[in-house]
Structure formats: structure tokens, C-alpha cells
Design brief:
The complex is a heterodimer of chains A (346) and B (394).
Chain A lengths: L7 E4 L3 H12 L4 E4 L3 H10 L1 E5 L2 E5 L3 E3 L8 E6 L6 H11 E9 L6 H8 L4 E14 L2 E14 L6 H10 L5 E3 L3 H18 L6 H7 L1 H17 L22 H17 L6 H9 L5 H14 L5 H15 L6 H16 L1
Helix pairs in contact in A: 3-4, 6-8, 7-9, 8-13, 12-13
Chain B lengths: L7 H13 L1 H12 L8 H19 L4 E5 L7 E6 L11 E6 L8 H4 L3 E3 L2 E3 L3 H21 L6 E6 L10 H8 L4 E4 L8 E2 L4 E10 L15 H13 L9 E9 L9 E10 L2 H13 L8 E10 L6 H16 L6 E2 L7 H6 L4 E2 L6 E2 L7 E3 H17 L4
Parallel strand pairs in B: 3-6, 3-7, 7-14, 8-13
Antiparallel strand pairs in B: 1-2, 2-6, 4-5, 5-16, 9-11, 9-12, 10-11, 15-16
The chains are: A alpha/beta (346), B alpha/beta (394).
């Protein structure tokens, strides 16, 4: 290995945390897992982390796997990968366990950096955008569906030694870059995520549903991105998603349609036809992270007096589907289309 | 709920044996997929049926009984009975439902040939549901190889599932009536088996009014089209998304000429419901609806094409059994209520314990990206074998 080994602590060994821990450990870094599920932690301590790629399972031992109570030494490099609704609790715990010169990087979906900084201080918080296709298929077994990208950056936008090191080490997983604009990626993902969330209201392929329900999809992106723009965010493209096609001076209905064509085509190339949100609702029967992800968006919309009717309708419908998965129906996207069309006519 | 585990060594042996026969399973699946079987092509369906019969017989030997029910305008339904092994013969009959038709028109194979690329298997109908039948057959072979007990089996193979099983429905109901368990080897939903499914209603409404000259004698007529407009609004309003109910008036027609009060009108309606109470509510509203003009008469045709499959205690028990055995195989088996209807709905409506979606792992049913996985075939064939033998335990 060309890089010196560095100690990492991965808090939360789900799809994101498990995948990253597996790749870091495989590259020779001493990785400690911390997970609140004692059985899960013990299974990893005993068997390591198992990653499944193309039907082949590979086992990778880690230096240690502990529950939060078992952690005694101050932590230096912490990769936080818990679900967004667990961020507050996890960051509170980290405040008591983080070394003075340590840091926490949020490898999560949603806008978690401010909440983390509130507990451990802005100077010990590093932002990150994670675009990773992985899924926990059995306890301790993660299906690695391939690498999208990771972008890491200081909250201040400065390029520091620690983010450079981090990007270099995370390259063991896939494309990891340093950015001065983490927020631009995170907000863009929230825009894209709103469209994908809408597809979880029905039981059909993401690409097909998005293709058939463009009024809803486009309105959702525009609502979220309008809030981002009011927040002073410069949006960043990622994967096949081009935010500037939907909002800003270069946006046009034809341009948005063309961008959605490309997005739909890309979604249709993916082996996974359903979203992780759909899976949470239909298969895992658990509450999704979506309300947590969009709470800061709704708060910012209120601050800027921006109407987000389609987003609000989406969140209401999602709560209904979470309560009763069998009530998934494409008609729900039709309802969102109708709201979007009515808004557009105003 | 306590579920009898089967010895770990037996589970491991089944898994190992299936694993060692992965290529044989893929070869069988390849042969099966290369024979296209679209629901609307009788010649292709009968060739498909013949192949399936000879293949099952080649693999499992001649059945104790075989019954072919002609499908008329649709594919035939074949029912094969296999006696259980001596130590499993006392167990109740387990029915395996597996349709051999696909939604893919003849010639799809040219654009979407059968191919195995790493873990991914492609081809028309691999996921829905040709891999499922191959898994079921190899599960039985695995039990025989391991010397484990197998219950009496009844394979019900129909060729009209994708168009709603019009011809096979009575055969399926007849075959399932005395079943100890009904296993539907339809594709899983993201790996999850289906323990509840929506009911589907297909209704046709014909309205008959009184024709008259709309300009010369406007009050003499009774417009079926006006009544249709009232009806569309009234019936569509029965939709209750939170309850899982949708009512879609998808097709309308009516009237003859611009200046004639319409004497007839027609609507084609699709209804989906998540439970029987909603089915009853919708049906009451349909039969009770009357037009504003009493001179217009209403005829309601059609009905519940697929009844609601509710998660009964017996279905929950089957799932619990499968989940526990899957755990022994290192699989976390989940259950789901989403997805369209299947032949499992018919069996469930008779009160049979049904486990649906017990077939392929993959995605893209009815879509271009349809695929099943090799690992899923191995895992689910081993699971099906463990499940079948567990049903012979007292």
C-alpha cells in the first residue's frame, strides 16, 4: 500500500458505513466499527464485514467492532454513517468521545453538518456528499451495487490537509474528491431525491414512473432547488442529474425534459429498479429517512417564504404509504401531477 | 410462534447440492426461456406446454397422475401429481403454482436473448416466472439426492396467467381446495415473498337511454352520455388512496350522432382494493349507483378478477416457517404486501395457506431490464427444498 495506514472509526455499520469500512480495512487501515446494535457489532467482531459483489461474497475483518458503551479511547477520525434521524443522538455521544484534534465527517444523506457542528463544533465537523449504491441484504452482509462518488469538504470551503488525506484514503473505495462546495452537492441530491421519493409511492420501476409523471418530478426538483438558491447555494451536478436544467437562468421546459430523458435512460440502466425508500417501505417495513432529510428544507422554505406545495403533498402521501404499504399506487403520483399542474397554471 | 427447525446438516447438504448443480439449473432455464411462450399465441403455448411436460418428466420421473384441461382460446392447464416419499406421504398435498406463459411477444428473444453475465440472468420471462419453476423442480431433486422427506406435490402449470387466468382459474381452485399449502413460484419483490396482495376488479358498465332528436325534441330523450358523465364522477370518487383503493374509469364510449340524445354509453373500469371491506364498499356503490334520469338503465358486467389475498394467520404461519428456514440458510427473508395480483389470490380466497413470490430473485417483471440472479436461484431452490421437507414433519 502506498499510503500510510490511518486509524478510522466508522459509527453506524449499515450500507454506507459497512461498505466504506470494508474498503478502508481492505486497504490496510485499522478500522473500528461502532454500532448500537450489540448483536450486529458482535457479529462483525467475529466474522468481519461481508460485501457481496456480482453474487460473490468477500469477508473482511476489522480491527474492532464495539457498542458505544465499549468505547473508551478518544476518537480521532470519525466517519459518521448512521441514518439521518439518529444523527442528533450519535453526535451528542461523539461530543463526549471525540479527541480535541479529532473530526467527524458526515457520510450520510441529508443536511446533517449543522446538527453535528452544534454538538462537536464547526472546526471538528467535515462535510461530505456520498453517492453510493449499497444495500444491507442480510445481517452483516452488504450488497455493493457500485461506486457513484464521494465529495469531501470543510464547512468553510477551505482545502485542508485532513480533507486531502481523507479523499486519498477513501479512494480505496472509489472516486473520492475534495470540494469547496459540499452544500451544493447535498442540496442537489435533495432535489434529485425528491423525485426518487415520489417514485416510492407506487410499485413500479423508478425510471418508468419518473418518465410518466414529469409534472410532479419537475415541480419537486424546482421547489427544492428554489429553496437552495434562496439559501445562497450553488448547485452541483452528479451522476446523471443536472440541476441547472431545472432551475436558474439556463433552465427551460424543453431543457428540463431533455435532462429528464437522460435521467430516465440512466435509471433504466441500473440493476436496481426500485429505490431504497421503496425498499424501506415495501420490504423492510420501517420508517424512511425522508421526513428527516426534508425537515431543514421545509424550515428554509418557511424562512424565505417559498411555497413548496408538491413537496408537502409528497411527504403527506409518503406517511400514508409508510403506514400501509399496500396502499402504494401510481394514482398517488397522479395526485402530485395535478397539484403541480394547478400550481403552474397560477 | 415456534417453527420446527430442520437439522443444520440437512440444510447445509441441500444448499451444497443445489450449489453444485447451478449449471444444470441454468441449462434447464436456458432451454425453457429459448422456447417463447406469449400468452396470446396458442401454437407457441402448446409447444411450451409440451416442452415443460417432457422436461418435468425427465427430471422428476413420470407423475402418478396427469390431467390436461384444454384452455380453448387460451393456453392449456396441466396438473401433475407426484406422490411423496415414503416418510413424507402422510403430509398434506403441497400445490405448486407456476404459469408457463410470459408477457413477451414472439421474437423478443431475438432482441433479448437468454444470457448469463456474472450473477445476472436475462431473457424474456426469466424473472416472471420461468426461473421459479426451474427452482421448484430442482428443490425436489435436492430432497431426493439428500434422502430427505418430500410431501405429495401437485404442480399446476397454466398458460394464461398474464391475461388474468380466465381458463385456468377453475382448475387452480379445484387443485388447491384440499392443499396443505400453496406455493406460488412467482418472482419475489426485491427478495421478499408476498403474504398479501390487492384484489383486482374489472367491471363494464352499459347505460341504455332513450334516443331522440336533440334539437327538435330535447326533452323526449334520456341521455346515456349524461348519465355516463355522472357515473364517472361518482365512481371515481370511491378512490381512497390511504385505504389502498383505486377506481379508474379507463375507457368510455357512447352516443351515435351529434344531434341525437345518446341511447347508449359504455365504461370500462379497473378497481384495486387492499381488503375485503373495501371490495364490499366498492361493489355496493357500483351496484347501488343510479343515474339522475331514471329512464336510463344500468347494466353492470364483469366482477372481481382476482380476489383480495389477505394475510391470514395460516399465511403468516407459512411465512414464519419460511423465514426461520431462510435464517438457517443465512438469508434474511422478508415479506411484502405490494405488487399486482397473481393466481395466489384465487387460492387465498378459498382459505388456503398461500406463500406467493417464492420464486426468482431479481427485478424488472414485464420490463426490458427483466433479470433474475444466479445466486438467487441457488438460494431459493435450497430454501424451497428445506421448506418442502419441513412440511412433512409432524
Amino acid at each position: 500500500m502506498s499510503l500510510p495506514p490511518r486509524e478510522y472509526t466508522v459509527v453506524g455499520a449499515g450500507a454506507i458505513g459497512g461498505t466504506i469500512a470494508w474498503h478502508l480495512a481492505r486497504a490496510g487501515h485499522p478500522v473500528t466499527i461502532v454500532d448500537t446494535d450489540a448483536d450486529h457489532a458482535r457479529a462483525i467482531a467475529r466474522d468481519g464485514i461481508v460485501v457481496e459483489r456480482g453474487g460473490v461474497r468477500e469477508r473482511q475483518p476489522v480491527a474492532a467492532a464495539l457498542t458505544p458503551e465499549e468505547v473508551s479511547v478518544p476518537l480521532r477520525r470519525v466517519l459518521l454513517a448512521v441514518k439521518a434521524h439518529a444523527t442528533d443522538t450519535a453526535a451528542g455521544w461523539l461530543a463526549a468521545h471525540l479527541a480535541a484534534d479529532g473530526y467527524v465527517v458526515s457520510l450520510q444523506n441529508g443536511l446533517n453538518e449543522d446538527l453535528i457542528a452544534g454538538h462537536v463544533g464547526a472546526e471538528r465537523t467535515v462535510g461530505a456528499f456520498v453517492d453510493l449504491f449499497a444495500d444491507v441484504v442480510a445481517p452483516g452482509v452488504i450488497n455493493d451495487g457500485g461506486a457513484g462518488a464521494i465529495a469531501i469538504g470543510e464547512m468553510s470551503g477551505a482545502v485542508t490537509e485532513r480533507v486531502r488525506e481523507l479523499a486519498a484514503d477513501l479512494s480505496a473505495w472509489g472516486p473520492a474528491v475534495v470540494t469547496a462546495n459540499v452544500a451544493g452537492y447535498l442540496w442537489a441530491k435533495l432535489g434529485f431525491g425528491a423525485m426518487l421519493t415520489a417514485t416510492a409511492l407506487a410499485d413500479d420501476a423508478m425510471g418508468d414512473l419518473l418518465d410518466r409523471h414529469r409534472p410532479a418530478g419537475h415541480a419537486l426538483v424546482r421547489e427544492v432547488l428554489a429553496v437552495a438558491t434562496a439559501e445562497g447555494i450553488i448547485l452541483e451536478p452528479f451522476d446523471a442529474f443536472e440541476p441547472t436544467a431545472y432551475t436558474g437562468p439556463a433552465a427551460s421546459p424543453a431543457g428540463a425534459d431533455a435532462a429528464t430523458d437522460r435521467l430516465v435512460a440512466w435509471l433504466r440502466t441500473q440493476t436496481k429498479t426500485r429505490s431504497g425508500i421503496w425498499r424501506d417501505i415495501a420490504v423492510r417495513h420501517r420508517a424512511t429517512e425522508v421526513p428527516t432529510h426534508y425537515a431543514p428544507v421545509l424550515a428554509a422554505a418557511d424562512r424565505h417564504h417559498i411555497d413548496v406545495p408538491v413537496l408537502r403533498a409528497l411527504l403527506e402521501q409518503l406517511a400514508e404509504v409508510e403506514a400501509q404499504p399496500i396502499s402504494m399506487s401510481e394514482s398517488r403520483l397522479g395526485v402530485l401531477d395535478a397539484i403541480a399542474t394547478k400550481e403552474a397554471a397560477r | 410462534m415456534s417453527v420446527p427447525a430442520i437439522p443444520a446438516a440437512d440444510v447445509a447438504a441441500l444448499r451444497q447440492w443445489v450449489d453444485a448443480h447451478t449449471q444444470d439449473m441454468l441449462d434447464d432455464l436456458g432451454d425453457y426461456v429459448r422456447l417463447e411462450t406469449p400468452s396470446d399465441d396458442l401454437a407457441a403455448l402448446s409447444a411450451g406446454r409440451d416442452w415443460v411436460l417432457s422436461w418435468v418428466e425427465r427430471r422428476l420421473g413420470p407423475p402418478a397422475a396427469i390431467r390436461t384441461e384444454p384452455g380453448g382460446a387460451h393456453g392449456d392447464t396441466v396438473v401433475l401429481d407426484y406422490t411423496g416419499t415414503q416418510d413424507g406421504a402422510d403430509a398434506g398435498t403441497v400445490v405448486v403454482l407456476a404459469h408457463y406463459d410470459t408477457v413477451w411477444p414472439l421474437g423478443t428473444l431475438g432482441e433479448l436473448p437468454f444470457a448469463v453475465d456474472g450473477d445476472v440472468i436475462r431473457g424474456p420471462g426469466v424473472f416472471d416466472m420461468k426461473a421459479g419453476l426451474v427452482q421448484a423442480v430442482w428443490a425436489v431433486l435436492a430432497l431426493r439426492a439428500a434422502g430427505l422427506a418430500c410431501p405429495p406435490l401437485r404442480l399446476v402449470l397454466n398458460g394464461d396467467e398474464e391475461i388474468g387466468s380466465p381458463a385456468s382459474r377453475p382448475v387452480i381452485e379445484d387443485s388447491c381446495r384440499d392443499a396443505a399449502a400453496v406455493l406460488v413460484f412467482e418472482a419475489s419483490a426485491d427478495g421478499a415473498v408476498k403474504t398479501a396482495r390487492k384484489g383486482v376488479g374489472l367491471f363494464d358498465v352499459t347505460l341504455t337511454g332513450v334516443e331522440a332528436h336533440a334539437g327538435l325534441d330535447p326533452t323526449a330523450g334520456a341521455s346515456a352520455v349524461t348519465a355516463l358523465a355522472e357515473m364517472v364522477t361518482a365512481l371515481t370518487a370511491l378512490t381512497d388512496l390511504a385505504a389502498g383503493t383505486t377506481v379508474n374509469v379507463g375507457v368510455v364510449s357512447g352516443g351515435t350522432r351529434r344531434n341525437v340524445t345518446a341511447g347508449s354509453a359504455h365504461a370500462g373500469i379497473d378497481v384495486r382494493v387492499a381488503d375485503q371491506a373495501e371490495a364490499d364498499r366498492v361493489e355496493r356503490a357500483f351496484t347501488g349507483w343510479r343515474p339522475g334520469d331514471p329512464r336510463v338503465t344500468v347494466r353492470l358486467d364483469g366482477g372481481w378478477n382476482r380476489p383480495v389475498m389477505a394475510r391470514t394467520p395460516a399465511i403468516a404461519e407459512l411465512f414464519e416457517r419460511a423465514r426461520s428456514l431462510a435464517g438457517q440458510l443465512g438469508i434474511e427473508l422478508r415479506e411484502t404486501a405490494v405488487g399486482g395480483a397473481s393466481d395466489g389470490n384465487f387460492a387465498a380466497a378459498l382459505g388456503c395457506p398461500v406463500l406467493d413470490g417464492f420464486g426468482a430473485v431479481g427485478a424488472g417483471a414485464h420490463a426490458r431490464d427483466e433479470h433474475a440472479t444466479v445466486s438467487g436461484m441457488v438460494e431459493r431452490a435450497a430454501l424451497a427444498a428445506a421448506f418442502l421437507t419441513s412440511l412433512t414433519a409432524p
